[in-house]
Design brief:
With 74 residues, the protein is of the alpha+beta class. It is built from three helices and three strands. It has helices at 3-13, 18-25, 29-41; strands spanning 15-17, 45-48, 68-71.
Amino acid sequence: MILSDVRDYLKDQHRVALADLVTHFDMDADALRGMLGKWISKGKVRKLPLTASCGTSCCQCDTALTEIYEWVDE
């Protein structure tokens, strides 16, 4: 997988949880964070403030994967 795949997915989805990226790309979260970091440094992606949960009441989400990333449109 390459950076452009992450870019295209984020552009299509606009806002994505890290858990969704892990599932979609079948990759390790840390590897994806590295790729997202490249886009963040270019000002194309921003990491939204962490919340205690994903927004549902099931409490089964891994809090390490509830990071939300957003594509920044110019």
